[in-house]
Design goal:
single chain; about 900 residues; alpha/beta; Leucine-rich repeat, LRR (right-handed beta-alpha superhelix); five-stranded parallel beta sheet; 15 helices; 47 strands; disordered N terminus; binds 2-acetamido-2-deoxy-beta-D-glucopyranose; transmembrane
């Protein structure tokens, strides 16, 4: 108990606090003043005099003093709902003569003084008050057309004793305590020739006296929702309504359990067109119950518990165009599944729309839909009928429905489509099969006979559908194909399954984990406009390293206007991926791993208006990539990237952001720098462009001084550097002349050499050889490298001898390791020297990777530097920038003649 009080305490405190004023001033807009929720006790006197609309609802007004409105003589609409008004003053309309709408819902008005001067008042809302009907409160409001006095605890509908309200069209009396309608209760409306609509919802109505509707014979719409209408009472009521012009009867939630062939008998003389029976507990509808409604066009039986539909249920509804059976037949624990008999819909010869969403029935009988000659749309979404497979007989009863355009079979638990499943539906335009469990290879014959089909929806089918090249071969007329979350992951077949769909404009392949596609995926789809491929696994197909190169699959789809490629793991975009997509308006690449984008990849997207690149790894936004696409954009979404806020990465984008008219939602908060550390976690807009400007004069100064210094240094160090530099250029010149002297005769002589050079190196230097020498190989000459080129099986000695013979030069890669390698020393060197001497060739080239003393050379290799031509001794430079010069020297050494001069 104590706990309970404690818990209640905060609530009491909250209730006892004064209601806060929500705003200090009335909100003005055009000629409208909104002074609601302001804790007002009087009407504010400081508003513009010419306002037309004044809202003072949700305040604390207790009185509407006419003088307080004299200022606002042009007032046309006044809303004083949710106050504590007790009285409606007689003089109101004298001070605001133009008032036509007065809304006073939720007040405490008891007495209505004569509203005689309200000549313009047409709409009066007094619902939720405490009206007492004394005198003739409405007699002066001659132009009133709409009157709401719902929920006023009125016990009678008699608003006056003599005819009045001549212009009234609509009267709302719902939620009062009216239990019976007496014969002359509605007499006050007897001269209201335009009266049409009467709402009597939620009344404890028990009795209607004979002739009570006579004064309002022009009645067209009657709403009785929420009244308890027992079977005798409802037939009685219908009798009373028989002489009216009733068109529209709403009896929702009136506890109807059963309809018989006499329930609506009284309405037989009317021309009822709309009947709403939803939210009842209808379990049985006897044959012929609706026979009285030959003019009925719309019937709703939504949310009932009907057990059976038979041939006779809809008898006589020969004008019905729309039948709403949503949840009209349902599964229950206690009773068996409802049944729909063959030919149940046969009387509905004019029916165009049949909605059977979320119904449950035992099976789809063979002739269920027979006779629906005008049917245009059938929706069976989420209904449970027990079918697992659609065969060519399932919908055969729709054969006669020549106008059927849409068949919606969403969420019906279908597992497979048989051959010719829809072959009786030659004129069908839209077929919806989403949210099923279809698991099969689509061979093509499933869609046989759908000769006019425009749209097929197969999305959300558990990713179990496998496509073949023939899948859509029978439906070339298709325009829209939805396959999101439906397919297995491989689409790499030739020709593409979509090849037959020449008129396709919309293709959804999203959420399929597709990893394999071919170049020809979209071939022939010249009209494709919308392509959705988000949430797949296509990163590999756009990699440069993909065997065969990146897959550029848009080659025929040049009319694309919308392209969605989000969440595919893309980390690169091939340079020509978006070539000639000049119609593209929407491009979305959210949630990929893009960090570097090539220059100009977007340059062909001349029509681009919307670009989404959020949640990638973009660091820079450079003019070279984004200049063209951002120039004409309407909206850009590029937030949540790790921007690098340095001059070269972001300056251009910063300037663009600050000057563009393009909408960039959240530009201040969501475009955040990641690097450098001084801008970490700060907005890109905080970037200081001045830091880049400072660089310009500095750079000029820098260039001038360095030039001066350099000149001096060049003069000073020329001698020191000339050694290698001049040699380098000299070598190039020599090389060129050698090339010129490259006569065919000489080439012939060289032909016997298969290799450019035989490389002798220590095992430790293998890596260096691979990195630095092998790149020099060309088509004509290769190096001989033991590890690589020795034929397996040939004895090592023999191969060394043979291959040295076939090599034009012999290169020693001289390092300490080589000098210490016994195998090199003893045999290879020996043989090489032997050959040099024997053939009288000058074919040795020494590359020194490190400094080696001459005596070590003599000792180990029996060689002296002086034995060789100078150009055949090459030194591996320590400085990186000298490597090109080294290469040049080496090439020259390799090209030098073998003859001893
Ligand atoms: C208001 O009604 C009174 C009679 O009740 C009439 O004398 C007066 O002229 C009317 N005023 C206007 C402005 O119509
Ligand atoms: C009803 O309104 C019209 C103009 O809309 C006006 O001419 C007429 O006088 C009004 N009728 C009465 C009885 O005030
Ligand atoms: C109403 O049904 C009963 C049988 O239930 C039948 O005898 C009677 O003829 C039917 N009346 C009409 C008007 O169809
Ligand atoms: C019903 O419609 C017919 C023809 O459309 C018409 O002659 C008849 O007067 C209408 N009946 C009622 C009560 O409106
Ligand atoms: C098919 O029906 C489902 C539910 O029954 C609905 O949500 C969907 O919009 C309908 N589809 C079409 C194309 O009419
Ligand atoms: C349905 O298919 C079977 C063979 O699978 C065929 O014999 C039969 O004629 C087909 N029926 C229709 C209505 O196409
Ligand atoms: C494609 O569309 C064009 C123009 O609407 C039409 O003439 C043509 O017949 C269509 N092709 C197919 C195979 O439906
Ligand atoms: C784009 O579509 C139009 C018709 O909609 C067509 O004439 C044109 O050939 C298509 N363009 C390309 C490049 O296929």
């Amino acid at each position: 108990m104590a706990m309970w009080i404690l818990q209640l305490l905060p609530l009491c405190l909250w209730v006892s606090m004064p209601t806060p004023a929500y705003g200090r001033e009335c909100r003005l807009e055009l000629k409208k003043a909104d002074c609601s929720h302001m804790n007002l006790k009087t009407i504010p006197q400081d508003l513009p005099e010419d306002i037309r609309v004044l809202d003072v609802s949700h305040n604390r007004l207790v009185e509407l003093i006419p003088q307080s409105l004299t200022r606002y003589r042009d007032l046309e609409q006044l809303d004083g709902s949710y106050n504590s008004l007790k009285l409606l003053p007689a003089a109101l309309c004298q001070v605001v003569p133009a008032l036509w709408r007065l809304t006073l819902r939720h007040n405490e008005v008891r007495l209505l003084q004569n509203l005689r001067n309200c000549t313009h008042l047409t709409h009066l809302d007094l619902s939720d008050n405490r009206l007492r009907l004394e005198g003739e409160p409405f007699s002066g409001t001659e132009n009133l057309t709409w009157l709401d006095i719902s929920r006023n605890k009125l016990t009678s509908a008699r608003l006056g004793s003599r005819p009045q309200l001549p212009s009234l069209k609509t009267l709302l009396l719902s939620g009062n305590d009216i239990a019976d309608l007496k014969k002359d209760d509605l007499n006050f409306l007897s001269e209201s020739s335009s009266f049409r609509t009467l709402a009597l919802s939620f009344l404890p109505l028990k009795k209607v006296e004979h002739g009570c509707f006579k004064p309002i014979a022009g009645l067209q719409d009657l709403v009785l929702d929420g009244c308890k209408l027992n079977p005798t009472f409802i037939s009685n009521l219908c009798e009373e309504l028989s002489d009216t012009s009733l068109r529209n009867l709403s009896i929702q939630n009136t506890q109807q359990v059963m309809l018989t062939n006499s329930t609506f008998k009284g309405l037989g003389k009317t021309n009822l067109t709309i009947l709403d029976l939803s939210n009842n507990k209808l379990a049985r509808i006897r044959d012929g119950s609706f026979q009285w409604f030959p003019m009925l066009e719309y019937l709703s039986l939504e949310q009932n518990i009907i057990k059976q539909l038979t041939k006779g249920t809809f008898l006589g509804l020969k004008s019905l165009r729309k039948l709403n059976l949503q949840m009209a037949l349902v599964k229950s624990h206690t009773s068996p599944l409802p049944v729909i008999d063959d030919f149940s819909f046969q009387p509905l010869v004019k029916l165009e729309y049949l909605n059977m969403e979320r119904t449950a029935f035992r099976e789809i009988p063979k002739n269920i839909f027979d006779g629906l000659l005008c049917l245009r749309e059938l929706n069976m979404g989420w209904s449970s009928t027990g079918i697992k497979m659609i065969s060519n007989t399932t919908f055969a009863s729709l054969k006669g429905s020549l106008f059927l355009q849409t068949l919606n079979l969403t969420g019906m638990g279908i597992k497979s489509l048989g051959p010719g499943a829809f072959s009786s539906l030659g004129n069908l335009k839209v077929l919806v099969l989403s949210h099923n469990f279809i698991k099969q290879q689509l061979m093509g014959e499933e869609f046989q006979g759908l000769n006019s089909i425009r749209e097929i929806h197969l999305s959300f089918n558990q990713q179990m559908i496998t496509l073949l090249s023939t899948s859509f071969i029978n439906i070339p007329t298709l325009r829209i194909l939805m396959l999101g979350h439906a397919l297995t992951s491989n689409l790499d077949m030739e020709p593409s399954p979509f090849r037959p769909l020449a008129n396709l404009t919309v293709l959804d392949l999203s959420n399929n984990n597709i990893a394999n596609i071919g170049h020809g995926l979209l071939d022939g789809l010249h009209h494709l406009s919308v392509l959705k491929m988000q949430h797949n696994n296509l990163a590999r197909v756009w990699k440069n390293a993909n065997p065969g190169g990146p897959v550029l699959f848009f080659r025929d789809a040049q009319n694309l206007t919308l392209l969605q490629l989000d969440y595919n793991g893309f980390d690169e975009i091939p340079t020509s991926a978006f070539r000639s997509l000049s119609q593209l308006i929407y491009l979305s690449l959210i949630g990929n791993l893009l960090n570097f984008l090539h220059n100009s990849i977007f340059d062909d997207l001349k029509s681009l208006r919307f670009l989404w690149l959020q949640k990638n790894l973009l660091t820079s936004v450079r003019r070279e990539t984004f200049g063209v696409p951002l120039s004409n954009l309407s909206e850009l979404f590029m937030d949540h990237n790790p921007f690098d806020c340095t001059c070269e990465s972001i300056l251009w984008f910063y300037n663009w952001l600050n000057s563009t008219n393009t909408s960039v939602p959240d530009r201040a908060k969501s475009y955040i720098c990641n690097t450098p550390s001084m801008y970490f976690n700060r907005s890109v807009l905080d970037f200081n462009p001045e830091s880049c400007k400072d660089l310009v004069p500095f750079e000029v100064l820098f260039v001038i001084t360095t030039t001066l210094v350099l000149c001096l240094m060049v003069v000073a160090f020329l001698l020191h550097f000339q050694g290698w530099r001049i040699k380098f250029y000299w070598n190039i010149v020599v090389n060129l002349t050698l090339d010129i002297n490259d006569s065919p005769y000489k080439r012939l002589a060289e032909c016997r050499y298969e290799y450019k050079a035989y490389i002798v190196h220590a095992q430790e230097d293998k890596l260096w050889v691979e990195r630095s020498l092998l790149p020099l190989e060309d088509k004509e000459f290769k190096f001989y490298l033991e590890d690589r080129d020795a034929l397996a099986g040939s004895s090592t000695l023999e191969s060394i001898v043979g291959n040295m013979r076939m090599s034009r030069k012999i290169i020693f890669v001289v390092t300490e390791a080589l000098l210490n390698d016994p195998w090199c020393r003893q045999f290879k060197v020996h043989h090489a020297l032997h050959q040099v001497i024997e053939e009288n060739r000058d074919s040795l080239v020494l590359i020194f990777l490190e400094d080696v003393a001459d005596y070590r050379l003599t000792q180990s290799l029996m060689l002296r530097k002086g034995m060789l031509k100078r150009r055949c001794i090459v030194q591996w430079p320590l400085q990186k920038e000298r490597i090109p010069a080294f290469r040049q020297e080496l090439q020259l050494a390799l090209a030098s003649s073998n003859r001893v001069n």
